[in-house]
Amino acid sequence: MEPMDIVGKSKEDVSLPKEFINLISSESNEVCSQEEKRTIAPEHVLKALEVLGFHDYIEEVYAAYEQHKLETLDSPKGGKWGSGAEMTEEEALAEQQRMFAEARARMNGGMTIPKQSESDRGLES
């Protein structure tokens, strides 16, 4: 018996055909290139659906995108840049330097540098 992910539907029933994904991503890439962008954005996917004649999907895809944005903003990480917006420029630079040092230490097989706590940062100011 097949595993059920969504009530009453198997994985194969709810997955999209690879050819469909390939078609949409290729057209999205074309739209992206025409706008002289290097990264495919949700708007490019929506435009690709329109160009390819999948008008019936646009509203649902847009709704899913809006829901994703809301869930991402409400997440503990607060989206792509999350806690960075709450840092001063000096704190961000110090954090960047700490992360570089930690990465260097890992690359050289050394010990990791402990992350500076919020209270420690406050003492430096």
From TrEMBL:
The lineage of its organism: Eukaryota, Viridiplantae, Streptophyta, Embryophyta, Tracheophyta. It comes from Nelumbo nucifera (Sacred lotus). Residues 18-49 form the Transcription factor CBF/NF-Y/archaeal histone domain. GO terms for molecular function: protein heterodimerization activity. Pfam families: CBFD_NFYB_HMF. It comes from the Eukaryota. This is Transcription factor CBF/NF-Y/archaeal histone domain-containing protein.
